[in-house]
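Action item from last week, closing it out:
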Amino acid sequence: MIMFTKGTLNKHLKEIQEIAEERIDIIIEQLKKQNNLTEEMKNTDQLYWIGMMNNFKNTAEEIVLKELIYV
């Protein structure tokens, strides 16, 4: 309530969103490296690549929610 009345809530929420998005991108890249998922696979086995990327995105979002949001 204090941030809202001071007018700093939107700025704070934007910062958290940017941090969360950056962290998700970093985690996805780490997961791709750990699982040897390459951009070449996108062309050779699209369904596998899409499935793995969706899995990585969901995993990364859950991690970020636990790290930043549910604190």
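Closing note: The longest helix spans residues 9-34.
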